[in-house]
Amino acid sequence: MKDCIEHGNLVMHETLGLGKVVESTDDRLYVIFRDHGDRKAKRFAQSYQGLVLSEVQSDSLLDCLPPVVQEGNNWALPRQRLTADGAVARFLGRWPGGFIDASYHASERAGKLAIHTLFAEQLGDGKLASLLDEDQLAEAVARTKLVLKEVVRLKLASSLETNALAEALESGKPARAYLKALDKLLASDDDSALEANYLAYIKAFSTLPQVGKGRVFTWSNASLLPSLAKPATHMFMKSDVTKKAGETMGFDLKYDATPNWTTYAALLKMGRVWGEAVAALSPADLIDVQAFIHVTCGGYDKE
Q: Which of 107, 110, 283, 301 is the most exposed place for a label (fewest CB within 10 A)?
């Protein structure tokens, strides 16, 4: 064992491959290996010679592991973790044709693309900004509600929450501030401005009044329109479902139930990381990545 191996280091094992030291003591190293889905860490004596420090100290999957918890004399992840190979096998078990499978397209993609097109027709290409600049708030709200009505019809999100958002858009100044922030978030292609634009968006979103039977200020509502309008950049988040997915994928989402930038940035990173991990399947955008995560993390287990 080389003395330089420490907590947080990436290490190589001859048969287990690349791993991360998730905890260490004076006499033990506890390692999670990337290509093995074990929830509990492998334990090695500090004197063990079969681990060597990896030449590369960064890995997209291992870098984002959630914090481990102590269980007896070992350390473990929050739940059993899917490896990339295991996730792909589960996805292809449902849709053998992958993202070009006709059944996949019909059930997971067609409806979202239809609403993406509707948003573009009604509010895209500068239309939303023009309506707001010309003080046509009522028209901007009507077009946004048309999009939300289709979301409800196609059952793409909670109807209670989506309808509550639609009702909140009748609030005048708060609705104008929300739509203006939404437009700025969607209009910018500058990655360096994403955090600032998202923070402004969430701030405006939080001022919408609570109306209707469903909650307005939720992750589903916060991520709905951005993910449908610009699926190459934004991703849909459904609170508990996405939280469970992060744990199953072995990914630290830094989850907080209140919409915030830290959690959303982690979600986008999970989308990028898993998009790269399944690149062989050629996902077109984050709609595909979100669907992949949904099915591989048990989204259809009750069927």
A: 301
Based on the fold, state whether residues 265 and 169 are members of the same structural domain: yes
Q: How far is residue 157 from each of residues 145, 224, 227, measured CA to CA in Å?
A: 14, 8, 12
pLDDT > 60? residue 14: yes
Last residue in a domain, options 58, 78, 98: 78
> Which residue, 23, 46, 78, sits at the end of a domain?
78
Q: Is 12 helix (H, G, I), strand (E, B) or coil?
A: strand
> Where do the H-state alpha helices sit in the chain?
84-94, 102-104, 110-123, 127-133, 137-153, 159-168, 173-187, 194-205, 219-229, 239-248, 261-277, 286-296
Q: Which domain holds residue 41?
A: 10-78
Residue 103, Cα to own-chain centre: how many angstroms?
23
Q: Structural domain tally of the chain?
A: 2
Residue recorded with tokens 């104008």:
176
Asked if 92 and 152 sit in the same domain, the reply is yes
Using alpha carbons only, how large is the chain's radius of gyration in Å?
Answer: 22
Write out pLDDT tens, residues 121-144.
Answer: 999 999 999 999 999 999 999 999
The residue written with tokens 């479902």 in the block is 241
Question: Is the domain of 72 the same as that of 96?
Answer: no
Q: What is the DSSP letter of 72?
A: T
Q: In whole angstroms, what is the distance from residue 72 CA to residue 68 CA?
A: 13
Helix 261-277 / helix 194-205 crossing angle, nearest 10 deg: 130
29 CB-contact burial (10 Å; exposed 0-12 / middle 13-18 / buried 19+): buried
Phi, psi of 56, deg, nearest 5: -105, 125
CB 68 within 8 A of CB 284: no
Residue 3 located in a structural domain: no
From residue 1, how far is each of 49, 62, 155, 247 by CA, in Å? 4, 21, 56, 31
Instruction: Identify the pLDDT of residue 300.
Output: 55
